[in-house]
Design goal:
337 residues; Quinone Oxidoreductase, Chain A, domain 1; Rossmann fold; six-stranded parallel sheet; 17 strands
Length: 337
């Protein structure tokens, strides 16, 4: 099979604009899958990579890791996908398939994990390549224009529900009702939980309730925070900012966990007695395995769950990025190829 020329948008330096960029994919590998991109979400992680906030970006950089498309070609040893299938690709694009983590089904913890926009080019393009295991089948009932953010933001907040063994009778809080948090509310509500949303914007209260929250607590109101002390079995933090962590630990019930999926750059201070006294814990997680992605997609199909998205054409990618950067996204942005 011949090499493939990819038409994409890339940044040439940290914080630079996205510009048209072509590159060539080598001949497809035996276990590779080439996806013709239909839609690609824009995530805050894309902004961090564009600006090199994490110090790992390489330029030119083609962002985009919330990809929906159809399989264009498959390697000779690819499994579970065929030409024409609609699939999704998220932050992770390949894992070794032989380490202990992969053999146990935790491919997302593989020590040689390949990530879609780190050291390779992502989905702001007409084609993207991945290992067959990470090409996630998209149920026909899900709108392809909305499904992309599930592959990053969605699985990020679905993983704690699975990892923590959340029961339908659990009381769960969500900090930050934005791109991740609004999906967490939907998942937890359909899971059967009693859901509390922490928001600093009272104007969003009614909208947050429609998304699945049973209670909305103003995180800046000390009396409101004190009123829920000792009540929540799990709190999922989706923000990347420093918070009043002590008040959230106080909100946990005995045996409760504060679980962060938000990339908080500063250390989270935890007083030992805030954990010891109530057997509480602090944890985190990075997305999920291919199998868990499939389970999440089936859960979304059964319960008609989808992110709220705003759509931009690919040629307006810089406008779309600024819209996200300015905090105007409600609640995820998707590029249409």
């Amino acid at each position: 099979m011949s090499k493939r020329t990819v038409q994409a948008y890339a940044v040439q330096k940290a914080g630079g604009p996205l510009e048209p960029f072509n590159y060539e994919l080598p001949e497809i590998g035996a276990e590779d899958v080439d996806i013709k991109v239909e839609y690609c979400g824009i995530c805050h992680s894309d902004l961090s990579m564009i600006k090199n906030e994490w110090g790992i970006s390489r330029y030119p950089l083609v962002p985009g890791h919330e990809i929906i498309g159809t399989v264009e070609s498959v390697g000779a040893h690819a499994k579970g996908v065929k030409v024409g299938d609609r699939v999704g690709l998220g932050w992770m694009s390949a894992s070794c398939m032989h380490c202990d983590q992969c053999m146990q089904g935790s491919h997302n913890l593989c020590s040689t994990l390949e990530q879609t926009i780190i050291g390779r080019h992502g989905g702001f393009a007409d084609y993207v390549r991945c290992h067959w295991s990470w090409a996630i089948q998209i149920p026909a009932e899900l709108d392809p224009a909305k499904a992309g953010p599930l592959l990053c933001g969605g699985i990020t907040v679905f993983r704690p529900i699975d990892m923590q063994g959340v029961k339908p009778t659990a009381r769960v809080g969500v900090i930050g009702i934005g791109g991740l948090g609004h999906m967490a509310l939907q998942f937890l509500n359909k899971w059967g939980c009693e859901v509390t949303a922490f928001s600093s914007n009272p104007d969003k209260t009614e909208e947050i309730r429609k998304m699945g929250a049973h209670h909305v607590v103003n995180s800046r109101d000390s009396k409101a925070m004190k009123s829920i002390q000792g009540t929540l079995d799990l709190i999922i933090n989706t923000t990347n900012v420093t918070l009043d962590w002590a008040s959230y630990f106080a909100a946990l019930a005995p045996g409760g966990t504060l679980h962060t999926v938000g990339a908080v750059l500063e250390p989270i201070p935890v007083a030992a007695f805030s954990l010891i006294g109530g057997e509480k814990s602090l944890s985190g997680s990075p997305l999920g395995s291919p199998a868990l992605n499939r389970i999440m997609m089936e859960f979304c199909r059964r319960h008609n769950i989808a992110p709220v998205v705003e759509e931009f054409p690919l040629e307006k990618v810089n406008e779309a990025v600024k819209h996200l950067e300015d905090g105007k996204a409600r609640y995820r942005i998707v590029l249409k190829m």
